[in-house]
Amino acid sequence: MKRNSFVYVFKFFQLTIMALMTMTLFFRTEMPRDTVDDGGIYAGALFFVVVMIMFNGMSEMAMTIFKLPVFYKQRDLLFFPSWAYAIPSWILKIPVTLVEVGLWVILTYYVIGFDPNITRFLKQFLLLVLVNQMASGLFRFMGAVGRTMGVASTFGAFALLLQFALCGFVLSREDVKGWWIWGYWISPLMYSVNSILVNEFDGNKWKHIAPNGTEPLGVAVVKSRGFFPDA
């Protein structure tokens, strides 16, 4: 951790800059809650939040590859099993994840104008912590399997492409072909986006009936993106 302190400090700084940019892009005074199209803007903001937190774990791939020679040398000498290396590495990253996500959520949540309920604030924080942990594990796995930056980057880019294409936001569930629907159901990004959308659009500010509609606006927004409002 201390050896890579520059990386983590840079990530905190980068996250702060991106949070400030996001706050100015999705400023709550410019974002009404009157129509499904208005909800689509909030949905886009939430999707960007998930993607930003997910990609913040990408540095784990390079750091994992950098440490592999030492790991294989010590493993071959029977110093310790693989799990004794992997589990502490995961546990030590949890405080970093809490700081990163806390920094992002505290800066952006109320400025963007998400539901002011503190419970939903904490739920979004917890969800993004899990997303960051998922992303860190995914990138560490890519680094361990690829073993070199070239191979890991190639397969990593392909895996991310599948996640983005089949997460249900870029391409709606109804538009995914039958032979690709399995990718939709196994995509962790889909469950993350669905969860954060439901957390926001189930709030009190989205309970009013949509214009020319028969259901709450929040439910209509979630359904318009092909997600599950009761998830």
Write up this protein:
This is Putative ovule protein. It is found in: Membrane. Keywords: Membrane, Transmembrane, Transmembrane helix. It is a multi-pass membrane protein. Residues 1-201 form the ABC-2 type transporter transmembrane domain. With 231 residues, the chain is mainly alpha-helical. It has one domain. The chain contains 9 helices and no strands. Helix 2 (36-55) crosses helix 9. The protein is globular. The two termini are 37 Å apart.
Give a quick summary of the entry.
This protein is mainly α and 231 residues long. The protein has helices at 5-25, 36-55, 59-76, 82-112, 118-146, 149-165, 181-186, 188-201, 217-224.
Task: Indicate the mean pLDDT.
Answer: 85
Q: Over the alpha carbons, how many angstroms does the gyration radius reach?
A: 20 Å
Biggest beta sheet attributes = none
Return the string of H and E elements. Answer: HHHHHHHHH
Give the helix tally.
9
Low-pLDDT parts are none
Number of structurally distinct domains? 1
Proportion of residues in helical segments: over 70%
Pfam family, one: ABC2_membrane
Membrane topology: Multi-pass membrane protein
Domain ABC-2 type transporter transmembrane: 1-201
Main location: membrane
